Each structure stands twice: as structure tokens, then as C-alpha cells.
Amino acid sequence: MLEVIFLGTGGIMPNKERNVPAVALKYEGEVILWDVGEGTLRQLSIAKISPMKVEKIFITHFHGDHYLGLMSLIQTMTLWNREKPLHIYGPKYTFEFIQNYLKSGFFRPSFEIHVHELGEARLKFKNYEIWSFKVEHGVPALGYVFKEKDKRGSFDLNKIRELGLKPGPWMKELETKGKIEINGKVIHLEDVTGKPKKGVKIVYTGDTEPCERVKLFSERADVLIHEATYLNEEDRGESYHSTVMEACDIAEKAKVKLLVLFHRAPRYTYEEYKREAERLCGHKFIIPRDFDVLRIGEEYELSSLR
Ligand SMILES: [Zn+2]
Ligand SMILES: [Zn+2]
Prior knowledge:
Blueprint: E1 2-8, E2 22-27, E3 30-34, H1 40-46, E4 54-58, H2 64-67, H3 70-79, E5 86-90, H4 94-103, E6 113-117, E7 121-124, E8 128-134, E9 142-148, H5 157-162, H6 170-177, E10 179-182, E11 185-188, E12 201-204, H7 212-217, E13 223-227, H8 233-236, H9 244-253, E14 258-262, H10 270-280, E15 285-286, E16 292-296, E17 300-304
Bound molecules: zinc ion (ZN) (2 copies).
Residues 11-12, 63, 65-66, 207, 263 line the site of one zinc ion.
């Protein structure tokens, strides 16, 4: 089960209703952060997620609303004597910015910080991959994909019987080895299991104008968290952001299952934004508030931690 916790859903600057961007992915005991806007430490504490569980932080770009919460997070980890290394990923200039950032103040981290500067990359971890892709925001900026590995299908009793076998301890052995020999006959795992299950795919755009790379990387995603800072083009003006309609259009074309409208400009109230989004967007979408949790299994379920 994968949980997406929306710690900060607003954009540009916080207002009384919502904080700036941070999204936590909880997966198999690990916490991954997508962006770490100012105040993320407090948001984590309200969401009852220990900063000590955060192993990887992916920054989309170096505008303050997406990374200024990093320092307080690292200072707190140090106060709590963290020893486990922390990995920070980001676009071009990440080395330089993080190095300068960490040089300020009277403290040194108690643990190793590994900084990874990325272009478009495919990072492989135990049961998932993270892909980075370039987006268009006037400064070096990346979007990220979480892609869970596809899982093997479950054991199929009919197939087992057809091969003249009975369920037993050999199934465990077959699971580890992939193939085994029974009564002189080689059995492969695929011979006795059903269709593989597709791993969950979640995409986070960070800040961007509508762009082709987002569409390409979001192809048939389960969830697309697309920035939709503005309700209309007039409000957007010359800024490198997207409108609700544009995010909707990309979700439609990429055939994503669920669109998450994110990074809302502080000028809109939740009700006003929701009313307009319902009028404008024909695709299935949600507008999360801070501390909403999206649980993704066979289906998805949205609830609030508050
Ligand atoms: Zn932003
Ligand atoms: Zn930005």
C-alpha cells in the first residue's frame, strides 16, 4: 500500500488555508519527500511523520516555496542525532545551492548528506524506481515519477491442478528460485501464477507551463499531481505556470486515472477554486487540502489526517 500525504498544497507563498509544496510518499516503511517548502517540518509533525524516516528528498526546482524548509528539517535531524545518511536530489545547480545553503548558521549536520544533481534519469531502488524529467518553468526544473515494480500474479490453483500438482511447500521454493524441478519436470513460476500486476505510477510535475514531457511521462499513470496554479490565463499572465484547464487537458490526453490539482495560488479560497475547477475540468480530479492522504491500492481512497 502506498500513501501520498499532501503536506503543503498551495503555491508561491503560504496563506492561512494552506502551506507551500511538500508531498510525502510513504512506501514500505520509508518516507520520500517531493519538495520541501518552508514549514514542512511543522507539517510533518502535524501529520505525525518523523523526519528521521525521511531517506530521500527530491526537489523540483530552486524557487523558495519548494526548498526553504530543508534547513529546519536537517537541523532537527541533527538535534535528534540522526546517523542515517540523507539523499537530496534536484536539477542543475543542486550541488552549488545546497552547499551554499548548508554553509550558513552555527551548525553542522550529524549525518552524511549525499547530493545528486539530475538531468533526465531513471533511479532504481529495491521495489520502485524514480524517474526525473525536464519541465518548463523558466529555471532548471524537474518533474518526478514514482514507479512501483510490477508484481507477479498470485498462485493459480487451476494451473497447479492442471500440472498434476497439489499446493505445498514447493510453492515457497519456486517463489524464491523462479523455477524448480518436481518429479523430473521443470516448473517455472509463470506456469502456475496469474497475470503480473502493474506497479503503481504517480507523477509530480512541480511548477511548469503545460508541456509535452509531462504528457509523455504521465502516460497511463494512476495519479498525476499537476500544478494548476491559476484558474484562467488572465490570472496566469506571463508566469511559467499552468491553469486548471491545461492540467485537465494533459490528464485527459495522457489517460491518467486521477488528476490532482496542486500548487493553488494564494489568492483563491478552496471553495472558489473548487467551484471553478468543477465547471472547467471534465477529467476525474481531486483538490487536496493540507494533510489529506491518498491511499493507493487496487482502488484509491482520500481521507484527512486532521
Ligand atoms: Zn512554486
Ligand atoms: Zn517555481
